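1st attempt posting a full record on here, be nice pls
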Amino acid sequence: MIQRIQSLYLLVAAALMSLTLFMPIATFVVDGNTYELSAFALSCGDMSESTLWMGVMLVMATLLPLVVIFLFKRRTLQVRLCAVEIVLLLGSLVMIGLYYWLTSRLFENLVVEHRQFGWGAPMPLVSLVLTALASRAIFKDEVLVRSLDRIR
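the predicted structure (as tokens):
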């Protein structure tokens, strides 16, 4: 199970996505106040605005690779679930961009001193590449098994 390269790809993708849940996605400094966009909230001190939908999508994108790893005997289902994971990761990237844009629009009338993406923002993109590599490796395994079945 873990000795297969696609399992390692999926494990690293799940680890990166779990880091996204706990790391800041973006930081805005507005009028001396630091606003932090994370998976579940846009917060500044005691003020907090919910970004629940992005958080839910990131949690699903974190758990699905772990499910795929344990379905190692059903390779066609693994390939399909990898495609679902890729869609979830693309959706996560869209949600991150959307919430970044909405937060920028929220502060458009104020003086934004500093705005930057955090370490959590590129993690879904890296996970997307790793999931695509895992899907390709799973498909190659399936082709190999089918060719060996033909030889028998």
